[in-house]
What we know:
By secondary structure, the chain is an all-alpha fold. The protein has one domain. The chain is 70% helix and 0% strand. The chain has three helices and no strands. Helix 1 (3-24) runs antiparallel to helix 2 (30-46). The longest helix has 22 residues, at 3-24. The model has no long low-confidence stretch (mean pLDDT 94).
Amino acid sequence: MTIDRFVLAFAGFVVLTGVVMSQLHHVYWLGLTAFAGLNMFQAAFTGFCPLAMILKKFGMKPGCAFP
């Protein structure tokens, strides 16, 4: 698995977790979904992703989006 795929999978997990928690507990959990969406949006334009940087330091194989 490359960094790109892991970042996308993790972002999807965070979004789904925020939506489910907002339905089960409190609507404020949608803030987690908004945070994940904003982070993905800015990473698309800047290429800066903290998770990708961490994964690269742990030796995960880079992909096209986060070399």
